[in-house]
Design brief:
Elements: E1 3-7, H1 12-23, E2 27-32, H2 40-50, E3 55-58, H3 64-74, E4 78-81, H4 90-93, H5 95-115, E5 120-126, H6 150-169, E6 173-178, E7 181-182, H7 191-200, E8 204-208, E9 214-215, E10 218-219, H8 220-231, E11 242-247, E12 253-254, H9 255-266, E13 271-275, H10 290-296, H11 304-318
Parallel strand pairs: 1-2, 1-4, 2-3, 4-5, 5-6, 6-11, 7-10, 8-13
Antiparallel strand pairs: 9-12
Helix pairs in contact: 1-2, 1-8, 3-5, 5-6, 7-9, 9-11
């Protein structure tokens, strides 16, 4: 049985990836510091769903010594590093937390992966690294030197650090550029969660740039399936054991259309307050997923209406809304 260490296991993606791998009979060692970037209750309740089926440590990846004890004790063969300070807008007011967690914390995990001979280091990147690129769809081979946020800059740095470890130490590394992941148990700071809550409570939703933006929304079950298939498939193109994948839906949708679908599912009308464009934002995201689909033999993805419907069902049940 392969041992997999998942950092950020109580996070949105970490929780779902752990659930998937538990079903596939992997032994999971999970780490999370359960911080209060958003309501820790949600993280604790995600964790409650899986805690009896994994080995869990409440730990901040900035604590190198305690982290090393876990590597030394369990000797994982695969590491999935999902622990990070998330959120683009939050980086405007709290840039220091991104530098510490996303750079120093990332270094701690990848350095210990090297020392303890991890066979595959998988890490979360982001569509944010495409920054001010205007050519769509975004392709893995594009230059990513013009990021628009500190968050995006730290994810770009993660990719560079991982590439150097692959090159120097022959550590197999795979970076996953997530495109706006959504679904049940999602993050409260993400658009779908906020819009659902505000529409149900008859509050105004805030939309930037007059809604003239689009996003490549990717359903969480698709993300977990991609991650599972990537675990043992390392299709390196060169002598450096390093690969980047876009993990997207390949079908971007205008924000106003996204809101319309949500209104139809909720059977309620949104009250919209339009705000100016923020410099940290990317106006449009669209993923070229040809490499992913060709490598993993993917044939279909979850349609946006089904994904939104599934989220709303979960939200109403979780918060006991009618």
């Amino acid at each position: 049985m392969k041992k997999i260490l998942i950092t950020g296991v109580a996070g949105f993606i970490g929780y779902h990836v752990a659930k998937k791998l538990i079903k596939k009979n992997f032994k999971i060692i999970g780490i999370d510091n359960l911080n209060n970037y958003y309501d820790p209750k949600l993280k604790k309740e995600r964790l409650h769903q899986i805690q009896k089926k994994i080995i869990f440590y409440k730990l901040n990846i900035l604590n190198y010594n305690l982290l090393e004890r876990i590597f030394k004790k369990h000797k994982p063969s695969i590491v999935i590093n999902l622990a990070a300070q998330a959120g683009v807008r939050y980086s405007l007011t709290n840039p220091k937390s991104y530098i510490s967690t996303n750079l120093t914390g990332f270094f701690n995990v990848i350095e210990l992966s090297k020392i303890y001979n991890v066979k595959h280091f998988i890490f979360a990147s982001s569509s944010s690294i495409y920054g001010l690129n205007k050519k769509l769809p975004f392709k893995e081979t594009m230059k990513t030197d013009n990021v628009a946020s500190i968050y995006g800059a730290t994810k770009k740095s993660n990719e560079l650090i991982a590439h150097s470890y692959s090159h120097i130490h022959n550590l197999p590394c795979t970076g996953l550029r997530y495109f706006t992941v959504y679904g049940p148990w999602g993050r409260p700071d993400m658009a779908l969660f906020k819009f659902t809550k505000q529409i149900i409570n008859q509050q105004k939703i805030t939309v930037f740039n007059k809604g003239l933006m689009s996003r490549d929304f990717t359903y969480i079950d698709d993300i977990t399936e991609y991650t599972y298939k990537i675990l043992n498939k390392i299709p390196y193109k060169s002598n450096i054991p390093f690969q980047i994948f876009n993990l997207g839906n390949k079908k971007p949708i205008k924000i106003l259309k996204f809101i319309k679908i949500l209104e139809n599912v909720l059977k309620k009308k949104a009250r919209i307050k339009y705000l100016n464009f923020q410099k940290t934002e990317i106006k449009n995201t669209s993923s070229n997923t040809n490499l992913l689909y060709k490598t993993l033999k993917i044939k279909k993805v979850t349609p946006i209406k089904i994904g939104i419907t599934n989220f709303v069902k979960w939200y109403k049940k979780y918060y006991k809304k009618i």
